[in-house]
Amino acid sequence: MKILNHLLYTDDGKQVSYRPTPNKAGKYTPSYLVMHYTAATKASGSIAWFLNPTAKASAHLVIDRDGTITQFAPFNIITWHAGVSQWNGLNGLNSYSIGIELVNGGKLAKQGGKWVCPVDKTTVSDDDVIIAKHKNETAENGWQEYSEKQLSVAIDVATLLVKTYQLKDVIGHEDIAPFRKTDPGPAFPMTSFKAKAMGRKDATLDLYKTSTQVNIRKGAGTQFETITDMLPANTKVTVFKREGTWSFVEVLDTVHGLNDIEGWVSSKYLVK
Ligand SMILES: [Zn+2]
C-alpha cells in the first residue's frame, strides 16, 4: 500500500474506496493512531453512519472483516472518532490522531444461549467469540474475534501510517476514554499489533509454537514465578528477545481466558 496526497492506494495503484464524510474539521498534524471497533458486525451500517451529517461521527478508515478498506477523509484532515478523550497531557484526541475502525461486534450479549451483537442483533457464532475480561472491567464477557485478514490489512496500514506521519504511538479508544469506551477490546492483539506497527523489527517474523506444555515466567530462569498456568502445546507466540536459553514472548492465542500474556519461556520448547 501507499499514501499519496494523504489518500490510501493499494500496491497496484488503485485508490481504496473513498467516501468523503461531511463529519470532519480542518487540517492537523497527526501524532497518534487510535484503534476502534465499530460495535456492529457489518461495514455497511458504519459507512452509512459516517456519511450521515446528523451522526457527527467519522473516522479516517473502516476496515471490513474481509480486509476491504473505506477511507472517509484525507489523513491530514480531522475526523470525529475519539470524542471526549485524554492522552499524554492532550485533550480531545481527534485533533491529534488518525482513527481506524475495525468492523467487529465488540462486547456481545448472551441471548437464548447465543452470543449476539447488541447493536445490530446479529448472532455471532461461538467459534468467532472469545471469553475474556476487558482490562478496564472486572467480569469476563464474550467479544467478537477479529478476522486474520482484517488484522493483517490493519497492520499493513498502521505500519504505513506510522512511517508516513512519524506517529508516536498506537493506542486504543479504551485507553483515551477509559470510562466510556471498551474498543478495540480484549479480542484485539494490541501488544503485538503495536510492536509490528511501530517497527519493532524482531517482532515481525519471529513466530513460534510451543512444542509441549510449558511454563511462562516473570524472568529468564526457573527461579522466577510463573505468570499463569502452563501454556498448552501448540500455543502461538512471538519472540521479542532472547537471554541465554530463554525467550521473552508475547502469547498470540487466548490462553486461560487471558490475552496479550507476555513472559519468559525456555527456548527449547519453541518450534517454528
Ligand atoms: Zn471507538
- Which hetero compounds are present in the coordinates? zinc ion
Distance between the termini: 28 Å
The major beta sheet can be summarized as:
6 strands, mixed
Poorly predicted runs: none
Q: Whole-number average pLDDT?
A: 94
Count of strand segments: 22
Structural class given helices, strands, pairing?
alpha+beta
Our count of domains comes out at 2
Compute the CA-based radius of gyration: 19 Å
The amount of helix comes to 10-25%
Number of helices: 5
What portion of residues belong to β-strands?
25-35%
Following the backbone from N to C, one meets helices and strands in this order, namely: EEEEEHEEEEEEEEEEEHEHHHEEEEE
- Largest sheet: spatial strand order: 3-7-6-11-5-17
In the CATH scheme, the class of the largest domain would be Alpha Beta
Shape: globular
CATH topology of the largest domain: Lysozyme-like
Q: What's the architecture of the largest domain, going by CATH? A: 3-Layer(aba) Sandwich
Please identify which CATH superfamily of the largest domain we are dealing with.
Answer: Peptidoglycan recognition protein-like
